[in-house]
Amino acid sequence: MSDSGPGLPRPGRSMRERTSALLTGALGSAILMIVLVSVMWAIEIVDYVEDGRLDRYGIVAHETDGLPGILFAPFLHAGFGHLMANSVPLLILGFVAAIRGIGRFLAASLVVILVSGLGVWFTSPPDTLTIGASGLVFGYFGYVVARGLFDRRTLDIVLGVVVAVLYYSILWGALPTQPGVSWQGHLFGLIGGVLAAWLLRRRGPVTI
């Protein structure tokens, strides 16, 4: 896989060029996450007006009709409190995940959504309806931490360590400790993030 792309400094660039590329990547990732979270809020407003009717498009475990919900569930929430709880970590972790390039970030997001969604569909109790972006939150956490290990780039290692230190406590959410909370979505989101980091790892000289 090529190392070129927005926000991805190539060996041989001057420090000014590398800094400029990283700043461009940071700006792009910030805009992307603001738009993504804004879309989630817009959907939740529509869902509120419609008395929660959109929630039925989430993941329904073990039901073939519930499989399309794998793609829709991350954008649906059980009220504004649920969405608020996901918005801040999603903005922060998504921003860090996307800073190395939008295309790579979108590919990682798709892996996380599919792994998390399928894990929920297979392992949740039958007919359980699951919605929410927390699978993405756990996925981005796993992706950012594992990216530093797999890519072995200085900046990615530093970002991975910082994220691990600041957000390690969310790992408790991947255990079946809270009734009504989809630990399956959290666990498989985390697994999806690590898998995405491995699948999308970059090969080549170690750099920033």
UniProtKB/TrEMBL annotation:
One of the protein's GO biological processes: proteolysis
Membrane topology: Multi-pass membrane protein
UniProt entry keywords in alphabetical sequence: Hydrolase, Membrane, Protease, Transmembrane, Transmembrane helix
Pfam families registered for this protein in UniProt: Rhomboid
Coiled coil listed as a keyword: no
GO molecular function: peptidase activity
Domain Peptidase S54 rhomboid intervals: 70-202
Keyword Hydrolase: yes
Residues that span the membrane, as ranges: 21-43, 75-98, 105-123, 129-150, 157-175, 181-200
Localization per Swiss-Prot or TrEMBL: Membrane
Protein name (Swiss-Prot/TrEMBL): Rhomboid family intramembrane serine protease
